[in-house]
Amino acid sequence: MIYVTRRATFSASHRLYNPLFSDEENERIFDKCNNPRGHGHNYVLEVTVRGVPDPQTGYVIDLKVLRDIIEEHIIAKVDHKHLNDDVDFLRGIIPTAENLAWAFWQILEPIIPAGTLHAIRVYESENNFVEYHGEPMEVPRYPVEQFQQSAL
Ligand code: NI
Asked: In terms of pTM, does the model score above 0.85?
């Protein structure tokens, strides 16, 4: 088995808060990440596909194909966006790196054309990153009208 990884980058803003918490609870739990107008990150996304190389090409997956899929289905939708407001597939979801990794998995897993999606890593900063391998997991979606950044 070979593990093939493509890295992509995007810049986006977000605000971490739970609409069911009081302002005080949000501030205590999310601290600076609860800043009402949001804050930004330069994210790094790594997508790992595993498989056995095709005997005729030597590829598990053509990395140009993987690059284009990540660009079209993820990067084009999140780069230079506000993750609370601007991204349909994140509506109502607290946009932590954990939940981003889960959401990106849901999008990519069904459309990887060769090999099997193995891991999604989302780096929020140089030192902080999360990794998801597709284990079943529920991510709550809060009512969008309470959740939108622009509702402030
Ligand atoms: Ni943040």
From this structure: yes
Distance 57 CA to ligand 1 centre (A): 41
User: Cα separation of 115 and 97, whole Å?
Assistant: 25
Cβ-contact 40, 151 below 8 angstroms: no
Distance 131 CA to ligand 1 centre (A): 17
Tens of each residue's pLDDT in the chain, 152 residues: 999 999 999 999 999 999 889 999 999 999 999 998 999 999 999 999 999 999 999 999 999 999 999 999 999 999 999 999 999 999 999 999 999 999 999 999 999 999 999 999 999 999 999 999 999 999 999 987 777 665 55
Contact between 141 and 93 under an 8 Å Cβ cutoff? The reply is: yes
**Range of the structural domain that residue 48 is part of:** 2-151
Number of domains in the chain: 1
> Which CATH number do you get for residue 67?
3.30.479.10
Instruction: Provide the annotated active-site residues.
Output: 33, 80, 124
44 alpha carbon – ligand 1 mean position (Å): 13
